[in-house]
Design a protein that fits this description.
alpha+beta; 4 helices; about 70 residues; 2 strands; two-stranded parallel ribbon
Length: about 70
């Protein structure tokens, strides 16, 4: 069985459609169905900056992207 890890970094929980879809997947609503269908286990991480800035500081790529766009972490 394969394993896929997906991390989603969001500045705030503004209920946009992409975030809501990821939340559904993150909350295990679709993980089991995906595993049954494709034999691929999906592990998700959801980070929202307004909840904690630590993941944004620890991930160098995300941190660099935010700095490039002039956003402070």
């Amino acid at each position: 069985m394969q394993k896929v890890e997906i991390s989603y970094y969001c500045l705030c929980d503004d209920e946009n459609i992409e975030l809501e879809i990821f939340k559904c997947f993150h909350q295990n609503m679709l993980k089991k169905e995906h595993l049954d269908y494709s034999n691929v286990e999906v592990e998700t991480q959801l980070y929202i900056k307004s909840d904690s800035e630590i993941p944004f500081l620890e991930n160098k790529l995300v941190h660099a992207e935010l700095e490039a766009k002039g956003l402070k972490v």
